[in-house]
Amino acid sequence: MVLDAVHALERVAPQPDGSTHVTVGAGIRLGALNTLLAQHGLAMRNLGDIDKQSIAGAISTGTHGTGARLGGLATQVVGARIVTATGDVVETSSTRRPELFELARLGLGSVGVLAAVTLEVVPAFRLEAREEPWALDDVLDGLDELVDGNDHFEFYWFPHTRRALTKRNNRIPDDVHQRLNPVRSFVDDELLSNGLFSLTNRVATLVPPATATINGLAARALSARRYTAPSAEVFISPRRVKFREMEYAVPRAELTGVLEEIDRWIEASGERLPFPVEVRFAAQDDLWLSTAHGRETAYVAVHQYVRLPFTRYFSAVERIVAQVEGRPHWGKIHWLDAERLGLVYPRFADAQRVRNQADPEGMFSNPYLDRVLGPVEGLERVPEAVA
Fold this sequence. Notes:
Blueprint: E1 9-14, E2 20-25, H1 30-39, E3 42-43, H2 55-60, E4 77-83, E5 89-93, H3 98-105, E6 113-123, E7 126-135, H4 136-141, H5 143-148, E8 152-157, E9 163-172, H6 182-206, H7 211-221, E10 225-230, H8 231-235, E11 243-251, H9 255-269, E12 277-282, E13 297-305, H10 311-322, E14 327-328, H11 338-341, H12 348-358, H13 367-373
Antiparallel strand pairs: 1-2, 2-6, 3-6, 4-5, 4-6, 7-9, 7-10, 8-9, 8-12, 11-13, 11-14, 12-13
C-alpha cells in the first residue's frame, strides 16, 4: 500500500450533537484536508502550525496545537481502519476493537498501516488573532489567565532575553472581518519571519557572540498585529528556515520552573541560541500514549538552526524536564527508551501488550519503535542507526 495514494474523501456524516464525522484516506495531507473540509463548511477543532504532514503521520506521533480546553489531533479521531500484519483490514473505534483503536490512532504505526481515519470535525469557524510582544516575566506571572482566558494561547521566548511574542487566538462570529493588509502579511510572514530570520541565523552561525544582540534586537523589533481569518489560516504558519527540534510535554504547573531552569543553563553554558523557545498548552486526555495523558499540559519546544550543533543544548533540556516527568514528542528528537518512557506513561504496559498481540512477528518493527516501545516479545531487538 502506498500511503500517499490513499487520500480520498469517503464519507461526511452529520451527528446529533452538531459535529460531523468525516472519513478520509489516511494519506491525505493536512493542507489538503483543511481545504476539503472548508469546501463542506467544516473545520478541524484544533491544529498545529504546520500542514505538510499526512493525517496518518500527524495522529500517530501525537501532533497537537494549543488550547487549554483542547487535545491533540488524535483526540479528534473517532475511527480508524488499519491493515494488520496478517493483511486483514480492520475497522476500529471506541466500541469496535477499542484496545487496538488506542494504538491505531496514536501508536507510531506499531499495530498496522492506517488506511482511513474518521475525524470528528466542527462547523467552519473564524478566529481573531492577536500577536503582541510581552515581557517574559509578565507572561509567566499572568500565565493562568492567558491560557484559560483564550481559546488558543502560545508564546515564543527569545533566549538571551526576557522577551516573548504572545499569540492569542479566539473564536469570533462569522460576520466579523478584519483582514490583515496583504503587504503587512507578506512583510511579517515572509520577509521577517522567514527571510530576515534566515539571515540572522546565518549571521549567528558565523559570529556566535552576536547571537544575544541579534535576539535582543529581534525581540524589540516585534510589533503587535491583529486580524481575523478562517481557523486554518490562523493556525498554519509558513516555516522555511530549516531547524532541528525537540519538544517535551510537562505538567502545566511546572512550566515556569522549567523555563527558568533552561534560562539559567543557557546563560551558564555559553551556548548561543538564535531560535526562540515555543510554548503551547493542551487539556489532559486519556489516550494511552498521548503526551497529555492524565494531566493539564504545557509543551516546551526547543529548536536549533540546522547548521548549528544541537546535542548539548537538547540533552541539557532533556535532563531538566526529566525532573518533572517530561514526555517527549514521539516524532521529534529525544533520547529516551522504553524503560524510561514506561515510568511516565501509566498505560505504557498496556500499549506494549496490544502491540505484541497485534504484531507478534514484528512486521512493523523498526529500530526506533524497538527503542521507545521495546522489542516485540520473543524477537531480537533491531539496533538503531546512529544519526
